[in-house]
Amino acid sequence: MIDRTTLWIVIIGLGLGSFFLRFVFTGLVGNRPMPAWLLRHLRYTAVAVLPALVAPQVLWPAATGGEPDPARLAAAAAALSVGLITKNVLAAMLAGGVTLYGMLYLFL
Amino acid sequence: MAITTPKSAYLRGVVDGLPFILVIIPFATLFGLLAVEAGLNVIEALVFSLVVIAGAAQFTALQLMQEDAPTIIVLASALAVNLRMAMYSASLTPYIGSAPLWQRALAAYLTVDQSYMVSVAQFEKEPQMTVPQRIAYFFGAVTPVVPLWYIFTVVGAMLGSRVPDSWALDFALPITFLAMIAPMFRTLAHVVAAFVAVVVSLLAVGVPFSLGIIIAGVVGMVAGAQAELWLERRRELSQ
After folding, report:
1. Membrane-crossing residues (chain A) (predicted)?
2. Which residue of A47, A50, A100 is in closest CB contact with B175?
3. Domain tally for chain A?
């Protein structure tokens, strides 16, 4: 059972901290120009952080106790390849979902 | 549909944000479910989603609290997962940094993976957009997403633990992120950044407190920037 004091400290602390992280540049830097080298790195924020976030979950899903799972691997591959080919986020998500449920249905 | 006014920009943002409804519903429902399973009540789950609106960080905090981790570790880990928000904020600054402060504050509260990604893609594609149009587009993109984040947290919390594991809702997040990333691979440098980040992230999976993701992200960004410089130099040489 989660301690109530801990819970509220976490909710409020995480709320304030998350807002600060989201506001730190847009709010505090504003429209002052930023150096070219910084902008060059920032262009790759999303394509670096998100795959890094996802990769361990794809290979070692928590739901299977960290064991690689063919259904989840295939679903990830389907979402990625359909996204690359069609450049359509919705089509990629559907491909991933259909593959996941199809594989789980076939192999469970 | 051409963007000519803030209103048309807002509407275009709404349209571009619509696909994420399919993502946010299972994701928010899952958070509600897991929160109740961890012993939170419906109100606590809702306040959590209202105050934080950051799925991955909320899941991280929930899991660590269940493991009785020290409060400071719970906070540090969940904020580490959310460090990417600072990177998002930095990368949005050149586009919306000159908007009024209250708009930037509201945009900051509403910065989530989906709104950031859709918006940056749009701002890069149409650099002639004005700042009010960009802000309107950004708010448009979150309109279909954020209210559903609150509502379906409550729905999930009320469903309680009645949803079976076989629904595999845990994988809604990875599929979403992969689907969102794929269209962003516009140049070789983007591919290099992602590839390096994935390799480092897998190697660093044992690094505590989710710091591996931050390390991998930074290394990936450096790799992307270096690849961009290298491609530029090669283009100059061949001319």
Report:
1. 6-30, 42-63
2. A100
3. 2
